[in-house]
Design brief:
The chain is about 30% helix and about 25% strand. By secondary structure, it is of the alpha/beta class.
Length: about 500
Amino acid sequence: MELPLTPLDLLARIRRSAPDRVGVIEGEASWTYRDLGERCDRLGHALQRDIGLRPGQVVAWLGGNTHELLEAYYGVLLAGGVLLPLNIRLAPAELRAILAASGAVVLFRHPDEPDPGQPGQAIRTVVLGDEHEELLAAQPSGPVPTPPVDERAPAEVFYTSGSTGQPKGALLSHRGLYLHAIHSALTMGLTADEVVLHTIPLFHVNGWGTPHYVTGLGGTHVMLPRFDAGEVLRLVEAHGITRLFLVPAMARLLLDHGDIDRRELGSVRNISVGGAPASRELLAELDAAFGCETICGYGMTEAGPTLTRSLAVPGRPSSLDQRATTGRPILGVDARVLGPDDVEVPWDGQTVGEICARSNHVMIGYLDQPEATSEALRDGWLRTGDLAVVDADGYMTIVDRAKDLIISGGENIASVEVEHALCAHPAVSEAAVVGVPDERWGEVPRAFVSLVDGGGVDGVDEAELITWVRSRLAAFKAPRSVVILDELPKGGTGKVQKQQLRRWPLES
């Protein structure tokens, strides 16, 4: 017997086997898995009956991490549609461009988000709140007549950040989403009693896959519409959160918050940091503050998303140095660092190559962009554009993005290495390093930093930070200039937007 693999089975399983278990919490409200399933059914009916959705059409969603968006992960698929969660940090013109490119036929919009306006095609808008609830209430509560599922057909489309050009829509299949959930749950040792706080935006590749594997196991989703450090700490204590997923900027905000020592945080079993490289110092601080082990993870939109976790080699204790690496491939992923002619680099911790991966949860391709698809999925590998080394135990460590590598006077400078050196300074909260033009050297590093508590240690200035890096790295790697900002510019996923920093006015 062979059945199509689809994330719809994850919801079907738990609503049948544990319908009375609390599945979702948001604010003071909560829903059992029976409730969740019924709301997903009603959304599916509404899309078919009121919207007239046809199989394969795109349903866009604009809002933060709310229970309605979680329901859309299943309700849209029940109706035969393809879900498009939109980045709430994009400008209206950017959102209209994505809506037009995707061919979306309906937009569900949270009332806190401005109306992006109509794209080129006709599109219906449903505002969450009274309008959305009235739409659901008018529907039957029974099963949705779901079209036959092709496991290789798109279930979701996520648009990339556009840092290397116009955004591209990465198509993720039913099969890929299902297998990513299984691969992640097994690799991470997740269980049915997990209580997971949705800190990572769901529009950022499913919040790293949490809507699927938490549901499939019957864990509890705790929704967080927008990240707030104090609220995260409160929710950890109030609900006994077991897993935290953070980007480094979120981690820093938690560690610097005044409540960090006043909250009971012992329920947290594991913290995963991803989205950007994290220093061993940051991991050590998280270990101490939460009393659990912190690891790193790595992935990308096109990978669906997770490729690696820095878990221990089976049968060996983990070390902080290894946990601070990019990690080893998770179950179901073949990830390698390839050099010239696609030959795998030696595991010597020194030879640099590009991380390339193949997996059943890598994207189908980019929507309506065959040339970009061919470039990204070349010769059987997903080309990540991330440069890394591999140590003797198979732990990868990203040294830079290929486009972020700074070549100064013929010497390669990894911006990540310089950023780590800057972040080791007690006054530095965050750092980003980019190359800027230089008549003599071609380009030189320029650093942008934000300071702890907006001011940090008295007297810290550009000269001190340059000297600090020179004491830790080769002189040619030290930034030639340092710009101190209140906050580094970030995209919707919390990543620093280096493309904005590259446009920073040159010093006179």
